[in-house]
Amino acid sequence: MNIEVVFFGPANAHTTYSLALVFARWAGWPLQTQIVESTIASHHNVTVGGVPFGCVAANVMEREKVTLQLLQHCFCPVNVAAMRGLNGKRLIEVCGSKMADLDRHALTAIFYLVSGEGEVTSSVRDRHNRFPSEASLLRHWGVLDLPVADILAEYLQDRVRASLLGLPPIQAAEPVKVSHDVDVPFKLAFKHLSDLPRLIAGDWLHRRRFDSAWSTLRDWLAVRQGDFERDPYNCFERILAGHDRAGRHADFYFISGHTGGRIDGDYSLDDEPIRSLINEVTRRGHRVGLHPSYCASTSADALNVERKRLDKVMYELDISVPLDAVRTHYLRFDPLQTPALLQQAGFTEDSSLAFADAAGFRRGTCRSFPLWDWERGCALNLVEKPLIAMDVSLLAPHYEGLDHDAAASRIDTLKSECQRHGGTFSLLWHNNNFNSESDFELYEYAASRIMP
Questions:
Q1: Which one-letter DSSP state was computed for residue 170?
Q2: Fold entry, domain 176-186+233-447
């Protein structure tokens, strides 16, 4: 069954993008588009399966105003609390009489959120030139833990389903996706003796490990003799074994350039331990992706060089899986430049979109979507698989700074929202953030598909 979309007047690119997301990509319902010349009132200029959806505002300021009004109406603190306690009831059951405003502007709000328009129009950036959560409209309204765009999409889908009987059920996405950025694969393997005082000082100051002086020197000597299992950050076998037991297929993102200097790590893809790790990751059924270096997310030349370098290594290791996945280092992502550059470099899937300083739904969705090209005004062939939670965001003192119990609670909240709305809880955990057995327990809890 095809769903017919009728535009009474010219079809707005933003509207067609949102419609394709809501009904074709997320619901799996095929669309047929028809443009009809008409003088029908502008607030009824799009119909889907006979259901009027209203117009999309023409300028940025009006879209922002509409989105602000929409969030104020339907996601005020009272309704947010109600929604979290309704055990999966639909938005229409929560907001009741406010559906008129929601119906008219839902497509506008979905585009605003998913396309990142708020990020494009804001000049607020952190010290790494990233859009911070504090500047997000979702954080401002206290709904960063809700997939707002998915909730709005479900409302529109419900309306069409009520009008067109026999539509197939919407299929849920993969429930949990785990990934690892290989920023610092080894603590000691590529360090010189002169680097040890700095490492020991870091253990004293940040990890309160006052026995570090002797243990670090002892482990460094063992690693220098080729015993890489003594390296504290080399927990990849335990990580891989966990994936094997759970039947998970994970993504591992490797750095292949150093445009940012020390911030890009201290390893090279030519190092034998790194090649062995890449080979083992793929041998056990996991995927290798590129982790573009600090400045590469806004440099076409750097991106191309770094992709070719990793491609070459994979070819030399006889790895035939295509290199199509990418996540930028430090989650540095310029919404005006990075999407098009990643596509031009040959990538088809990105997972950089998360706030570094807070877990949650940065673009209001836990479902994949094609990234929007703001320069050309169209959707790209580059699919975003949004990142929902990262270990550093949850645990680092300069970000959320949660203890393990509070982090587990946040993970429960986010994972349950993803499950409720049929999306994917995408989790990033770094191998160098396992400093205790309780760290492993929290990670395994977060990576589990089983809900509490």
A1: P
A2: TIM Barrel (3.20.20)
Task: Number of helices (H) and strands (E) in the chain: give both, helices first.
Answer: 17, 13
User: And the tokens for 452?
Assistant: 């509490």
Neighbours of 415 (CB within 10 A): 24
Q: Say if CB 11 and CB 35 are below 8 A apart.
A: yes
Helix H, strand E, coil C: the string for 197-242 is HHHHHHHHHHCCCCCHHHHHHHHHHHHHCCCHHHCCCCCHHHHHHH
Give tens-digit pLDDT for 198-220: 766 666 555 555 455 557 667 76
CA distance 133 to 418: 19
The amino acid at 144: L
Contact 66, 105 (CB under 8 A): yes
> Residue 106 and residue 293: Cα distance in Å, rounded?
37
Q: Which of 27-36, 174-183, 412-421 has the lowest mean pLDDT?
A: 27-36
Following DSSP, what letter does each residue of 253-298 receive, concatenated? Answer: EE----TTGGGG-S--TTSHHHHHHHHHHHHTT-EEEE---TTGGG
Q: Is the pTM of this model over 0.85?
A: yes
- Enumerate the CATH 3.20.20.370 domain ranges in the chain, comma separated: 176-186+233-447
Residue 147: which residues within 8 A CB-CB, separation 6 or more?
A: 361, 364, 365, 366, 367, 417, 418, 421, 423
CA distance 157 to 153: 6
Q: How confident is the model at residue 70 (pLDDT cuts 50, 70, 90)?
A: low
Give me the chain's average pLDDT, please: 86
pLDDT of residue 82: 46
